[in-house]
Amino acid sequence: MPPTPAAATSQGPAWDFSDVTHSDASLRRFLHGLPGVDQVGADARAASLGTRSIKTTAKAYALDLAIRMVDLTTLEGQDTHGKVRALAAKAMRPDPADPTCPATAAVCVYPDMVATAKDVLGDSGVNVAAVATAFPSGRAALDIKLADTRDAVEAGADEIDMVIDRGAFLSGRYLQVFEEIVAVKEACARPDGQSAHLKVIFETGELQTYDNVRRVSWLGMMAGAHFIKTSTGKVQPAATLPVTMVMLQAVRDFREATGQMVGVKPAGGIRTSKDAIKYLVVVNEVAGPDWLDPDWFRFGASTLLNELLMQRTKMTTGRYSGPDYFTLD
């Protein structure tokens, strides 16, 4: 049964999926009724799209677009306030020697570093994203996950990157995962009536099949995710081109069914400008040009930015700058 329209709110999905989300059985029937993914075909198409050659002005545009799509990330136990301040400054001015270089989309940090990042970024337009819900494992009680989310939002987070309970999903407890995403989205609400955007991380490297990736993509979108995200970056494999392609197919089909756009964020393992451009080609060819915007596609990365900056400098000056020309993140 197709979804029915409902009034959009900041607290929940803008489409009514209550007819398929009232029980595990009904949700399982819906998700397992989605078309299966031909793994061989998906791998072959992703590989084919990855061979496209982008040159000259198109490449220059792609490099700037990729920079604007970066969620510049530090998620280490050794993070310090000084490191986060430096990262936030770099997000605003990735290449201090070139004022034409665009800023990144966001800085992604642990919740206890949100206030520090926000203090530096201010109203620059660069968002603060915070990982929450017992990142990266997701192994905590729901009340702890919700408190984690509320703390980050109160500290000033513009975006929340939550992790799903992969154990629950793989065990077929789809309704539990759905209800947890809905609850976390409610915890993203601010006193001003606005809401931090919610990115839902699947950890696709643990989901075993492309069919599971398609199912969890629909599950996240039905629960109200603003973005669906491949990985935490802590599990291998992290983002891959075929998995991202399956997620892009899902957001495309979801918009066709509901009229709603949902963003996609591959994270982890994307390190070169060549790889980033491959992803942009796949976005354009699979989801369409509407997704070629930082509001709808992001890269979760740390080392990628410097590589994009080196390639950009090469195109603008004709000289290739080594990695030590830019700050290490």
Mean pLDDT equals 92
CATH fold-type name: TIM Barrel
Biggest sheet details: 8 strands, parallel
Distance between the termini: 48 Å
SSE string, helices as H and strands as E? EEHHHEHEHEHEHHEHEHEHEH
Number of domains: 1
Q: Would you tell me the structural class of the helices and strands?
A: alpha/beta
Rounded to an integer in angstroms, the radius of gyration calculated over CA atoms is 19 Å
EC number: 4.1.2.4
Protein name: Deoxyribose-phosphate aldolase
GO molecular function, one term: deoxyribose-phosphate aldolase activity
Keywords: Lyase, Schiff base
Question: How do the strands and helices of this protein lay out in sequence?
Answer:
Blueprint: E1 4-5, E2 15-16, H1 24-32, H2 39-49, H3 56-68, E3 70-73, H4 81-92, E4 106-109, H5 114-121, E5 127-132, H6 142-154, E6 159-163, H7 166-170, H8 174-187, E7 197-201, H9 210-222, E8 227-229, H10 241-258, E9 263-265, H11 273-287, E10 299-301, H12 304-317
Parallel strand pairs: 3-4, 3-10, 4-5, 5-6, 6-7, 7-8, 8-9
Antiparallel strand pairs: 1-2
Helix pairs in contact: 2-10, 3-11, 3-12, 4-5, 6-8, 9-10, 10-11
Q: How would you describe what is shown here?
A:
- With 329 residues, the chain is of the alpha/beta class.
- It is built from twelve helices and ten strands.
- The strands form two sheets. The chain has an eight-stranded parallel beta sheet with strand order 9-8-7-6-5-4-3-10.
- The N and C termini lie far apart (48 Å).
- The chain has a single domain (34-319), classed as Aldolase class I (TIM Barrel, Alpha-Beta Barrel), CATH 3.20.20.70.
- The radius of gyration is 19 Å and the shape is globular.
- The longest helix is centred in the C-terminal third of the chain and has 18 residues, at 241-258.
- α6 (142-154) links the parallel β5 (127-132) and β6.
- α2 (39-49) crosses α10 (241-258) and α6 runs parallel beside α8 (174-187).
- The model is unreliable at 5-13 (pLDDT under 50).
- The protein has helices at 24-32, 39-49, 56-68, 81-92, 114-121, 142-154, 166-170, 174-187, 210-222, 241-258, 273-287, 304-317, and strands spanning 4-5, 15-16, 70-73, 106-109, 127-132, 159-163, 197-201, 227-229, 263-265, 299-301.
